[in-house]
Design brief:
11 helices, 2 strands
Length: about 350
C-alpha cells in the first residue's frame, strides 16, 4: 500500500516535535537535578499521552492504517529503548556519573540517537525503494539479533565496554574526576578531557548499535520514513525520565530481554515473508512472488508486540516477587536459631 500522509501534517508535526525537544533540552541545561519519582512519572505520562494524541490525530487526518502503523512502530521502538536503558545503567555505574548530571548525559545520548536513526532511516528508505530484496537482509539480521538477544549475558556487555574504556584511556589524556557536566577541564594549567567524554562516546556507541537493530525492526511494520522517524522520536523523548522512574526496577525485569527477542524474531519472520511475497530475485522462484508466503497485517503485529511485552513484564515481576519471598524465608531461617539462644 502506498502511503500518502498529508504534507501539512508531516511538516507541522516535525516543527512541533522539534520545539518540544528544544524546550526539553533547555530545561535540562538550565536546571540540572535528580528528578523525583513524581516528576519523572508526570513527564513519562506526558510523553506517552503525547504519542497517543499524535496517533489519534493521525487516525483523524490520515486513517486507521496509518495510526496502527505508528502505534505498532512506537511500541516496538519504546520496547527496544527500554532495553537500551539496561546498558545506560551499566555505563552510568561504571563511570560513577553523578546523578545530578545524568540527565544531561541521557539528553546528549538521545540527540545522538535521533541523528543516527535519522541517517539510517533515510538510507533504509532509499534501499527499500530501489532494492525490494533488502527485506531478506533486514529479516535475516533481525532473526540473528533476536537469537543473540535471547542468549546474551550481562557479562558480554561489560567485557565489550571494558575494551572500549581501555582503548580510550590509552589514547586520550583524561582527568581523574568529573568537573560537573563539562567535557574538558583545566588541570595544572592544561586543558584536558574529563571522564564525561568517555561516557558520551560509550552512550553514542550504544545508540549506534541499537539503531542498527531498531531501524530494520520498524521498517518491518511500515515503509513510511515519516512514521518511522516520528515513532523513534516519541520513543526516545520520554527515555530520560523513564530512566529515573524505573531506577532499580530494571534489574527485576529479568525476562524483558526474551520479550524483546521474541518481538525482533516475529518482525524478522514477517520481513522474510514479505520479501518472499514480493520476491524479485531471479534465483528464487524464477523471480516471481511466492503466493503461499503470508502478509502479516499491522494490527496483528501490534497485538503480538503488546502481548509479548505484557507477558515478559508480568513474568519478570512474578519471579522477582517469588525471589524476594524466598530470600525472606531464608533470612528468617538463619535468624531463628539466634533468637532461641
Amino acid at each position: 500500500m502506498e502511503l500518502a500522509l498529508p504534507i501539512w501534517f508531516e511538516i507541522g508535526s516535525l516543527v512541533v516535535l522539534t520545539l518540544i525537544l528544544v524546550a526539553d533540552l533547555l530545561i535540562v541545561y538550565k536546571r540540572p537535578h535528580v528528578p523525583s519519582m513524581k516528576e519523572a512519572s508526570l513527564w513519562v505520562a506526558f510523553y506517552v499521552g503525547l504519542a497517543l494524541v499524535f496517533a489519534l490525530l493521525m487516525l483523524i487526518f490520515a486513517g486507521g492504517e496509518f495510526a496502527g502503523q505508528f502505534l505498532a512502530g512506537w511500541i516496538t521502538e519504546y520496547s527496544l529503548s527500554i532495553d537500551n536503558l539496561f546498558v545506560f545503567v551499566i555505563i552510568m555505574a561504571r563511570f560513577s556519573v553523578p546523578r545530578k548530571y545524568q540527565q544531561e548525559v541521557l539528553m546528549v545520548g538521545i540527540i545522538i540517537a535521533l541523528v543516527l536513526r535519522g541517517i539510517f532511516i533515510l538510507l533504509g528508505a532509499q534501499l527499500i525503494e530501489n532494492f525490494s530484496w533488502i527485506f531478506y537482509i533486514f529479516g535475516a539480521f533481525l532473526l540473528y539479533t533476536a537469537v543473540h538477544q535471547a542468549l546474551s549475558k550481562e557479562e558480554d556487555v561489560e567485557e565489550a565496554e571494558n575494551g572500549v574504556i581501555r582503548y580510550l584511556r590509552r589514547h586520550i589524556n583524561i582527568s581523574p574526576s568529573f568537573d560537573g557536566a563539562k567535557v574538558r577541564t583545566l588541570v595544572d594549567g592544561k586543558k584536558i578531557f574529563t571522564p564525561m567524554i568517555i561516557v558520551f562516546i560509550a552512550i553514542g556507541t550504544t545508540d549506534l548499535i541499537f539503531a542498527l537493530d531498531s531501524i530494520p525492526a520498524i521498517f518491518g511494520i511500515t515503509t513510511s520514513p515519516f512514521i518511522v522517524f516520528t515513532a523513534n522520536v516519541f520513543a526516545l523523548m520520554g527515555l530520560r525520565q523513564l530512566y529515573f522512574l524505573l531506577g532499580g526496577l530494571l534489574d527485576r525485569l529479568e525476562y524483558l530481554k526474551y520479550g524483546i527477542a521474541f518481538i525482533l524474531f516475529f518482525i524478522g519472520v514477517k520481513l522474510v515473508f514479505h520479501a518472499m511475497h514480493t520476491n524479485e530475485l531471479p534465483f528464487i522462484n524464477g523471480g516471481q512472488g511466492i503466493e503461499w508466503a503470508p502478509e502479516i497485517d499491522t494490527w496483528t503485529s501490534l497485538a503480538v508486540i503488546l502481548v509479548s511485552m505484557a507477558v515478559a513484564t508480568i513474568a519478570s515481576l512474578i519471579k522477582a516477587s517469588r525471589d524476594a519471598r524466598r530470600r525472606g524465608h531464608t533470612l528468617a531461617e538463619e535468624i531463628r536459631p539466634v533468637d532461641g539462644e
